[in-house]
Task: inverse folding
């Protein structure tokens, strides 16, 4: 079986079929593909950027590193906050941008666990669990005490053994696990993960956070203010799915919550108490990403059966089967007017559908080399303003202006050894400002006005 490294060592980005309008291919917005060095700004870091997130208004950018995340003012790129976070994290801003939901991954009890917490950027604490200095001191003290006891019991000296980097690293992990357990008892962190695949985990008014319990089947609405004041506080739970929930979100009008799960169902819930309202059926394989239309009258969801389905939220009626994909569909979004839906899939396919007719009106396809389908999933599609943004498997970004039929290609330089780097692309200002994470430990900013 071909490995990711082998595939991307020879992979060359190429399009088999481009967007078009009235039978005409798009024109280049910048005279051709833009390579590294032509970006508007570059934010370099000393390590790989794990993830990034923007506030809804695009005024702040969160950058997650291995042991902290930083919040920047986007107009000036000024550092506003540094929050110590000892584990790789994923973050989301609340609607007002003042609160950050954090998901961390760590090894506890011999297995990987996810924990969730909240950070109030207006608060005084800029440490999520414990300061790095305190953790290091506790780990070193514990190692020293252990060495002293072992030396006393055995008559041998263990003082040099504790200077081993691996020993100190193991003690540090133990100290952090102790801190997590204590914070969990106080309700400052809790086990579970946030919904993914384009989910926004906050309620529209910013009072609730939606997360998935470790059983992966139960979605909980957490009261944010009570949790910040007194510790973990559940408002209600949503319990009906029979397999892992992967996506969750609230309708734009605030009247519905929706979840999508591997049990092949999309479920609609009452946002006041979590009671089940409707079960949307039709998928014959795992259900993945979903999206509400801007008027909340429709919801679309992609499935492992290579189909997108669209239902009426009021009645649960299935109104469209949307096909033309080579693999599962795990990214989608309606345009701001609600007239079209864009979806990206495994196999390097992006399609735009007319919501009224269900017709595929735009098709974009990566050229796939032999045995390439397994490495060619579209990792992100977004529709901002008149622009569609696509993140390709090699880390490049394509931006297409639907109205003006013009495009940008922000082409990633091939990494040393061809190692695959997923990275992220986020955008603000209707797709006019694009931020991309790249394998060279940098974030590039592209002004596409």
Result:
């Amino acid at each position: 079986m071909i490995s990711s490294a082998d595939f991307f060592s020879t992979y060359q980005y190429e399009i088999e079929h481009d967007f078009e309008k009235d039978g005409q291919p798009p024109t280049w917005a910048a005279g051709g593909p833009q390579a590294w060095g032509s970006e508007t700004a570059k934010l370099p870091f000393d390590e790989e950027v794990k993830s990034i997130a923007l506030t809804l208004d695009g005024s702040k950018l969160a950058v997650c590193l291995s042991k902290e995340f930083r919040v920047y003012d986007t107009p000036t790129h000024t550092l506003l906050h540094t929050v110590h976070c000892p584990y790789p994290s994923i973050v989301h801003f609340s609607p007002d941008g003042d609160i950050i939901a954090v998901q961390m991954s760590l090894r506890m009890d011999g297995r990987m666990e996810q924990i969730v917490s909240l950070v109030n950027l207006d608060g005084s604490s800029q440490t999520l669990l414990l300061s790095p200095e305190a953790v290091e001191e506790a780990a070193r003290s514990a190692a020293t005490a252990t060495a002293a006891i072992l030396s006393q019991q055995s008559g041998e000296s263990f003082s040099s053994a504790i200077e081993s980097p691996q020993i100190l690293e193991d003690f540090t992990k133990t100290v952090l696990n102790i801190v997590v357990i204590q914070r969990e008892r106080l309700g400052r962190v809790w086990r579970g993960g946030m919904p993914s695949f384009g989910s926004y985990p906050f309620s529209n008014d910013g009072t609730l956070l939606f997360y998935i319990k470790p059983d992966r089947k139960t979605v909980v609405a957490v009261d944010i203010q009570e949790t910040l004041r007194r510790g973990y506080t559940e408002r209600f739970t949503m319990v009906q799915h029979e397999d892992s929930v992967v996506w969750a979100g609230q309708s734009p009008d605030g009247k519905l919550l929706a979840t999508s799960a591997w049990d092949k169902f999309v479920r609609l819930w009452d946002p006041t108490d979590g009671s089940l309202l409707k079960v949307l059926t039709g998928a014959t394989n795992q259900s993945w990403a979903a999206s509400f239309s801007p008027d909340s009258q429709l919801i679309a969801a992609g499935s492992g059966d290579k189909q997108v389905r669209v239902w009426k939220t009021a009645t649960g009626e299935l109104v469209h089967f949307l096909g033309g994909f080579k693999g599962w569909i795990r990214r989608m979004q309606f345009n701001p007017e609600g007239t079209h839906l864009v979806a990206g899939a495994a196999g390097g396919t992006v399609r735009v559908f007319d919501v009224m007719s269900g017709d595929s009106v735009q098709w974009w396809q990566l050229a796939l080399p032999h045995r390439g389908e397994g490495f060619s999933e579209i990792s992100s599609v977004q529709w901002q303003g008149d622009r569609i943004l696509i993140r390709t498997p090699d880390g490049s970004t394509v931006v297409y202006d639907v109205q003006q039929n013009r495009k940008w290609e922000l082409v990633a330089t091939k990494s040393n050894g061809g190692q695959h780097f997923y990275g992220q692309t986020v955008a603000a200002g209707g797709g006019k400002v694009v931020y991309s994470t790249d394998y060279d430990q940098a974030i590039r900013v592209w002004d596409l006005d």
Notes: Residues 129 and 180 are 7 Å apart (CA to CA).
